[in-house]
Design goal:
By secondary structure, this protein is α+β, with helices and mostly antiparallel strands. It folds into two domains: 87 residues, PDZ domain (Pdz3 Domain), CATH 2.30.42; 286 residues, 2-enoyl-CoA Hydratase, Chain A, domain 1, CATH 3.90.226. 21% of the residues lie in helices and 23% in strands. It has ten helices and 24 strands. Strands 1, 5, 6, 7, 8, 9 and 10 form a seven-stranded antiparallel sheet that branches. Strands 2, 3, 15, 16, 17, 20 and 21 form a seven-stranded mixed sheet that branches. The protein has a six-stranded mixed sheet with strand order 12-13-14-18-19-22, sandwiched between helices. Strand 13, helix 6 and strand 14 form a beta-alpha-beta unit. Helix 6 runs parallel beside helix 7 and helix 7 runs parallel beside helix 9. It is globular and about 75 Å long. The two termini are 38 Å apart. Keywords: Hydrolase, Protease, Serine protease.
């Protein structure tokens, strides 16, 4: 499943090996209760119509059709028509989803984007085949095993570079300063996706970027925070969740728990079944999966520096921040633990459950089972997180106008906290005509990051002029804002 937010060039980004379905919050390990018998009486007349159509196709269609295909297509249609995030997962799709959740895959270790219909290397992952072979950021991949990449979609190019560990692939690469294309032969290997990266932007100010939420994300965050604090405490921290499409629920709870007091409520969910009505707290049993049925693995957050709980924090979001990203942003915003800066998030406020359909765990359905709510019982569905500081990508506006959001998707779930479900239009962003290239996050040219640093230093934040159809939850619609960094700790929510 491709992300609706991938219309923008910077969002056409993937890892060679596997990619997480964007905008999806997946709840793991809850398949057992889904098999309980909660069925209502079967609608016999409609079932009869279905069998009649099945028989007509078998007898009258121009070519023979296998029974399995007809049944599979019927399931696919039945599930996919429910909402944009429910779907049937065939063997290939299900395998890729499980791979992306685990954070490991077989591939080359290259983060890529599509630029001018050519695959561009954003970054090779350190220690991977691509890194060892000398692939560099900024290289253009023009051929894969002799096939021209121009004309392919990003996904098609990624598929050609994927493969089993130990197999070889040849890449033709254009590099600035080289007169002729370079040829590389790489051997695919098991790649571990590191979803969290960090750096010290300047003395006393740290930057952490989370690209997606996988099972190892909580441990990865703890490791990166440890690196930032090895030379002393920080004056401020920026958590970058822009273009983060979501991922697993445990990852979102774990990241929230790193900055909140133990046992505060992080997120709740409500669905048709009693078992879908859950609450997740900032505690190890809610962000780690049990091992051997009883024991929890070692808590990766137990050795975090205590200062992490109170360091002034700004979270960056945009219309590509979805699902798990919105859980983290919403929780920390509700507790006034962080200020949110950027543009309104995607608005994906539902939870999908993966339900295997066979004993061999090869095919499954991804079914929306509940809506989720922030600690203050706000629903994000089809609305998103509104930033405290509304700041667009550049001083002159957004690079690309009218990003697609949850409210724009046909068949999206309504927001049950809104009395009248009106279709919300995307922000009326003004495209910046001065730039033709996407901005690299975390660099000196990253305007939103610079404004986040201004806030952390107690300096004015230059706000963008907001579209008429968006609400302000923070500093206002335009001009500048000066607000002292908040180091207010959250008050624990007592469990019942």
């Amino acid at each position: 499943m491709s992300s609706p937010t991938l219309r923008r060039p910077f969002r056409d980004l993937a890892l060679i090996g596997a990619s997480l379905s964007a905008g999806v919050l997946i709840s793991l390990g809850i398949g057992a209760w889904a098999q309980k018998d909660t069925r209502a009486p079967l609608p016999l007349e409609e079932i009869r119509q279905l069998t009649d159509v099945f028989g007509l196709i078998k007898q009258s269609y121009v070519e023979p059709v296998e029974d399995k295909k007809l049944i599979t297509d019927a399931i696919n249609g039945m599930v996919s028509e429910l909402d944009p995030h429910s779907s049937y997962l065939d063997e290939k799709s299900y395998k890729e989803l499980k791979t992306s959740i685990s954070g490991k895959f077989g591939g080359l270790g290259i983060e890529v984007s599509m630029e001018n219909k050519v695959v561009k290397v954003v970054s090779p992952i350190e220690g991977t085949p691509a890194f060892r072979a000398g692939i560099r950021a900024g290289d253009y991949i023009i051929r894969v095993d002799g096939a021209q990449v121009r004309g392919m979609s990003l996904q098609q190019a990624v598929d050609k570079m994927r493969g089993e560990p130990g197999t070889k692939v040849k890449l033709g690469v254009l590099r600035k300063g080289e007169e002729k294309p370079l040829e590389f032969e790489l051997t695919r290997d098991i790649i571990k996706v590191v979803s969290v990266r960090s750096k010290l932007i300047e003395p006393g100010f740290g930057y952490v970027r989370i690209t997606q939420f996988t099972e190892p994300t909580t441990a990865d965050l703890a490791r990166e925070l440890g690196k930032l604090y090895k030379d002393g405490e920080l004056k401020g921290l920026v958590l970058d969740l822009r273009n983060n499409p979501g991922g697993v629920l445990q990852g979102a709870v774990g990241v929230s728990a790193a900055f909140l007091p133990r046992n505060v409520l992080v997120v709740s969910s409500k669905g048709q079944l009693q078992q879908a009505q859950t609450k997740s707290y900032a505690r190890v049993e809610d962000y780690l999966t049990r091992e051997d049925g009883n024991l929890f693995p070692s808590d990766p957050l137990k050795n975090l520096p205590p200062a992490v709980k109170k360091v002034p924090l700004v979270i960056l979001v945009n219309s590509g921040s979805a699902s798990a990203s919105e859980i983290v942003s919403g929780a920390l915003q509700d507790y006034d633990r962080a200020k949110i800066l950027g543009t309104p998030s995607f608005g994906k406020g539902s939870v999908q459950q993966i339900i295997p359909l066979d004993d061999k765990d090869k095919v499954a359905i991804k079914l929306t089972i509940s809506r989720y709510y922030t600690p203050k019982d706000r629903s994000i569905q089809a609305k998103g997180i509104n930033p405290d500081f509304y700041v667009e990508e550049t001083p002159d506006g957004e690079l690309f106008a009218n990003p697609l959001r949850e409210a724009d998707l046909d068949g999206h779930l309504s927001n049950d906290k809104v009395t009248e479900d009106k279709k919300q239009e995307s922000e009326k962003f003004v495209r910046n005509p001065k730039r033709t290239k996407a901005i690299e996050f975390g660099t000196a040219e990253d305007y939103q990051l610079q404004q986040a640093l201004n806030h952390l230093k107690g300096q004015p934040v230059k706000l963008s002029t907001k579209a008429d159809n968006t609400e302000s939850e923070g500093a206002g619609a335009s001009g500048t804002a000066k607000d002292k960094p908040s180091d207010k700790a959250a008050t624990p929510d007592k469990k019942k």
